[in-house]
Amino acid sequence: MGLFKDLKGTTESIFRVGVNAWKNITGGIAARNAADNADVKVQASQFETTGNTGLIINADAANTGADWSITINRPATGMAAGYTLTLPTTDGSPSEYLQTDGSGNLTWAGVGGSADKMAVDTTSLAFGTSSPLTLFTTPANAVIHKIQVVIDTPFNGTANVTVGIAGTTSKYMGSSQNVLQGIAKDVYETNPGEAAASEALIATYAAGGASAGAARILVYYSVPS
Fold first, then answer.
1. Does domain 118-222 have CATH number 2.60.40?
2. How many CA atoms lie within 13 A of 110 on its CB side?
3. Which of 8, 145, 184, 213 could disulfide-pair with 127, CB 3.0 to 4.6 Å?
């Protein structure tokens, strides 16, 4: 121990390594720059903690107003084994959530891709809409349970719409199953209950001289486990 204590700085408030330094602070140590006037980042190939509180972001936060800290920790009890979580390769899209494959690999998933969860896709239709109107592509193994056309503003002229796929434009709803010339708040519904394996759904619209009208096309579907 005599040799270690003889090293410059080991018995002082700063343990200096190279041009940077470790400095005593209340409750821990801080990595400082050579001028000792700002914190610097700490780099390592692996970071370990021995307590249940593993990481505090903004540890010096006042925890009032907009200045709050975030703490990430492990359960204090109840774990049967250690595990590793691997984050996705991107930051995801709006409304997605983190989903595990059971082995700790996390991916972003939407509600429509979650097993046995009902999802609804909504697409607006207006009198000047170009045809065909792209709706969305169903996930693999999806089942389409219901199609609704909701009239917001009645169409004039002889406008009509079908819902299906390229080549089978009335697969899920034919023009005779809805009336675009109805009244506001009318809802027209079909219940196909058909499997749709990654199909690109479209609405085929014929304006029929319409100069007014607006509706919504709702597709209800699930992805069974």
1. no
2. 14
3. 213
Six-digit token string for 128: 């000047």
- Other CB atoms within 10 Å distance of the CB of residue 78: 5
Residues 6+ apart with CB under 8 A from 200: 134, 136, 137, 165, 166
Written as six digits, the tokens of 30 are 């801080």
Segments making up each domain of the chain, as ranges: 14-73, 118-222
Tell me the C-alpha to C-alpha distance, in Å, between residue 39 and each of 45, 56, 66, 183.
20, 16, 22, 67
Q: Which residues contact 148 (CB under 8 A, 6 or more apart)?
A: 187, 188, 189, 216, 217, 218, 220
Instruction: Please write the tens of the pLDDT for every residue from 38-81.
Output: 888 888 888 888 877 778 888 888 888 889 988 888 888 888 99
The answer to whether residue 118 scores a pLDDT higher than 70 is yes
pTM: 0.52
CA distance 96 to 83: 23
3-class secondary-structure state, position 103: coil
